[in-house]
């Protein structure tokens, strides 16, 4: 380092002064004067050098002040920039936190919306599948219900047709029976008995058929009621299914609306999210740019600070060296001037005081510069610590954001798993419900099919039974018509025989009426015949347990026997006619024998028919028939009442004919008048049941003539 001029001059002069000390005082004075002049020159030089030094110090002070001002301005600017950077960094961090939280919320909402969308889509697909399955089931149920209704309607229609046909057949049968009754009532009592028997049999058959048909109808009605109940149940189930399908359709519609709303909301949120994401990206890019700028600015500021610090350190080192050199020169000057204190005290006092002041000022400036350097280093360290803290905070925030994102992802995954598990459970429950409904439908379908099959089989059986009953009724009608035709032929033959017998009896009666004057005694055969006829006639009047056709047939035979007996030769009024009667007797014997044989055959047929009838009618029915036919029997009394009843039926019978030629001396007894209510013959029954004419015994003797065919 270069020394100042005054120090060099002072050293040279000090070297020169050493030999001066050995000289004399004169030389000393001269030399002192010279030295004083030289010292004056040196002082002038020192003053000049001090002034130059002061100028340099002033320039240095000015430079230092300018440097301090520039450093203060730069530090203020740096502080302002750092504060603005801190505030901006805090704002950026707050905005980053806010944006990160908002982004996390948006991500949560997006994941929630996606999960809800997925769940809604899955539920919508499931509901569509369920709706399709339920629609198919509903269609199947509708087809089954329609088929069951059609079958039930067909069964009801068939039953109605069967009932109508049965009613028509009943009406036809009743009309036929009425016709048969009318026709049979026109025939004899035997045919009426047969008709009654057939009516009773048909009535019983009808009752049994009616009961059977009523039972079957009740069973069919019960089955129809059961089918109707099942149909109502099926319709109720179908209505329930329709309501469920409507509710499902409503739910599907609501879900579709919610899905559409969610789609629109999702689109809006997507648009908002996209806009916010773009804004966030722009803000993040701007923040990154500002951060890069701040980092570059801080790096540049740090470089500048380091350069300024290095420059200040260099300047401080230079100042320290200058101070050291100045202190060394001052110490040398002090040592040199100690000998000249007294002489140069006045001269050097001012210069030393100024130097001290300068040194003090330089020391103060150095201390200030050192303090400024320490403060700058402290500020730099604080800025570095703040930068490290900000970096740590950024790292912590990034780690916290990553942790929050990870926790949010884990929570969303857990929620997604739980929702998937719940949806799977719901799907399993819905599948189980579908299986249960299918099983219930199958379980309901099988008994319905079995019932329909059973009803169809029963319907077929009923149709077979109806056809069999129709066939049996047709065969019975044919057999009845054949029997009626046979009876009509038999009745026509009997009526012909009876007409022939009546004609023969009438001819005999007309031929022999004038010649009978007395009545011979009745023969035992005649009494037996009359007692048989009267007993058969009294069988009805005594009211025993005989039947209607028995009484009517006996009355017919009684009428025939009475007519034949009355048509026999009546006793003449005089005994002169006896010879003629005895002459006519052999001629009419063959005719009488034939009539007896015919009557005997009729009696045998009547007894056989009675035995048949007894097995058909009950006593109560016999009493009812007796009460119904008592009036007709009373009206049909007389000689030919039974004969006319065969052809008249239930019509009004003609008045009874007058009795044939009776003897003028014949007087009926009161008992005869009381008991002979049928008008079969003009006689009465005795205790033995023998028919007699009058109570006088002479009458029997008068009627006992050889001309009586029954007497022989």
Task: Provide a descriptive summary of the structure in words.
The structure is a single chain. This protein folds into two domains: 82-299 and 355-470; 513-703, no CATH class. The protein is built from eleven helices and two strands. The protein has helices at 5-17, 25-185, 189-337, 341-512, 524-541, 548-567, 578-614, 619-635, 641-648, 670-675, 697-703, and strands at 684-685, 691-692. A two-stranded antiparallel ribbon has the order 1-2. A hairpin with a 5-residue loop joins strand 1 and strand 2. Helix 6 runs antiparallel to helix 7. The chain is rod-shaped, with a radius of gyration of 81 Å. Residues 17-23, 517-524, 531-550, 563-579, 583-587, 635-685 and 687-712 have low confidence and may be disordered.
Low-pLDDT windows of residues: 17-23, 517-524, 531-550, 563-579, 583-587, 635-685, 687-712
Taken from the alpha-carbon principal axes, the silhouette is: rod-shaped
What is the spatial order of strands in the main beta sheet? 1-2
| Content-based structural category | mainly alpha
Oligomer: single chain
Largest sheet geometry: 2 strands, antiparallel
Radius of gyration: 81 Å
Structurally, the number of domains stands at 2
Q: Overall mean pLDDT score?
A: 64
How far apart are the termini? 216 Å
Question: Strand-and-helix sequence, N→C?
Answer: HHHHHHHHHHEEH
Count of individual beta strands: 2
Count of runs of 4 or more consecutive helical residues: 11
Which range does the strand content fall in? under 5%
Q: How much helical structure, as a percent, in the residues?
A: over 70%
Keywords: Coiled coil
């Amino acid at each position: 380092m270069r020394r100042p001029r005054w120090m060099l001059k002072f050293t040279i002069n000090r070297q020169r002064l050493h030999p001066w000390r050995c000289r004399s005082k004169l030389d000393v004075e001269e030399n002192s004067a010279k030295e004083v002049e030289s010292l004056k020159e040196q002082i002038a030089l020192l003053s000049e050098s001090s002034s130059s030094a002061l100028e340099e110090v002033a320039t240095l002070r000015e430079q230092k002040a300018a440097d301090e001002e520039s450093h203060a301005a730069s530090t203020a600017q740096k502080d302002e920039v750092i504060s603005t950077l801190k505030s901006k960094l805090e704002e950026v961090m707050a905005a980053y936190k806010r944006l990160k939280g908002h982004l996390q919320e948006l991500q949560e909402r997006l994941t929630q919306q996606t999960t809800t969308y997925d769940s809604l889509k899955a539920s919508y697909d499931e509901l569509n599948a369920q709706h399709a399955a339920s629609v198919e089931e509903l269609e199947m149920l509708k087809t089954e219900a329609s088929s069951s209704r059609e079958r039930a309607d067909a069964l009801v229609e068939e039953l109605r047709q069967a009932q109508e046909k049965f009613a028509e057949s009943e009406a036809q049968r009743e009309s036929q029976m009425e016709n048969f009754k009318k026709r049979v009532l026109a025939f004899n009592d035997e045919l009426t008995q047969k008709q009654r028997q057939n009516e009773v049999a048909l009535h019983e058959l009808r009752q049994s058929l009616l009961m059977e048909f009523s039972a079957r109808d009740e069973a069919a009605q019960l089955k129809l009621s059961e089918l109707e109940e099942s149909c109502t149940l099926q319709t109720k189930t179908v209505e329930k299914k329709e309501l469920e399908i409507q509710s499902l359709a409503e739910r599907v519609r609501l879900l579709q609306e919610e899905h559409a709303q969610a789609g629109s909301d999702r689109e809006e949120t997507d648009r908002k999210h996209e806009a916010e994401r773009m804004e966030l990206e722009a803000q993040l890019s701007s923040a990154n740019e500002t951060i890069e700028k701040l980092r570059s600015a801080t790096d540049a500021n740090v470089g500048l600070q380091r350069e300024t610090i290095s420059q200040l350190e260099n300047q401080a080192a230079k100042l320290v060296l200058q101070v050291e050199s100045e202190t060394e020169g001052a110490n040398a000057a002090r040592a040199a001037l100690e000998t000249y204190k007294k002489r140069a005290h006045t001269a050097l006092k001012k210069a030393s005081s100024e130097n001290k002041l300068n040194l003090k000022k330089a020391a103060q400036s150095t201390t200030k510069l050192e303090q400024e350097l320490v403060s700058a280093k402290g500020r730099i360290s604080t800025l570095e610590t703040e930068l490290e803290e900000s970096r740590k905070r950024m790292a912590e925030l990034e780690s916290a954001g990553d942790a929050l994102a990870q926790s949010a992802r884990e929570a969303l995954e857990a929620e997604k798993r739980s929702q998937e598990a719940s949806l799977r459970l719901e799907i399993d429950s819905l599948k189980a419900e579908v299986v249960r409904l299918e099983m219930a439908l199958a379980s309901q379908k099988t008994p319905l099919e079995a019932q329909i099959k059973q009803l169809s089989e029963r319907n077929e059986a009923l149709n077979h039974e109806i056809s069999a009953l129709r066939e049996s009724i047709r065969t019975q009608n044919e057999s009845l018509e054949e029997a009626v035709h046979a009876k009509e032929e038999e009745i026509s033959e009997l009526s012909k025989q009876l007409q022939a017998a009546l004609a023969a009896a009438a001819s005999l009666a007309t031929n022999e009426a004038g010649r009978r004057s007395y009545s011979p005694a009745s023969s035992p055969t005649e009494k037996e015949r009359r007692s048989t006829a009267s007993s058969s006639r009294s069988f009805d009047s005594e009211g025993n347990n005989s039947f209607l056709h028995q009484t009517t047939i006996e009355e017919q035979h009684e009428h025939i026997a009475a007519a034949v007996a009355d048509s026999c030769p009546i006793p003449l009024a005089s005994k002169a006619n006896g010879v003629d009667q005895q002459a006519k007797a052999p001629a009419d014997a063959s005719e009488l024998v034939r009539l007896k044989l015919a009557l005997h055959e009729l009696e045998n047929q009547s007894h056989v028919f009675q035995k048949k009838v007894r097995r058909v009618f009950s006593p109560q029915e016999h009493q009812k028939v007796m009460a119904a036919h008592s009036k007709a029997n009373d009206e049909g009394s007389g000689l030919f009442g039974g004969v006319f009843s065969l052809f008249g039926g239930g019509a009004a019978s003609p008045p009874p004919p007058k009795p044939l030629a009776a003897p003028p001396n014949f007087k009926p007894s009161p008992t005869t008048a009381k008991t002979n209510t049928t008008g079969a013959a003009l006689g009465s029954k005795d205790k033995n049941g023998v028919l007699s004419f009058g109570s006088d015994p002479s009458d029997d003797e008068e009627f006992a003539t050889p001309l009586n065919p029954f007497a022989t």
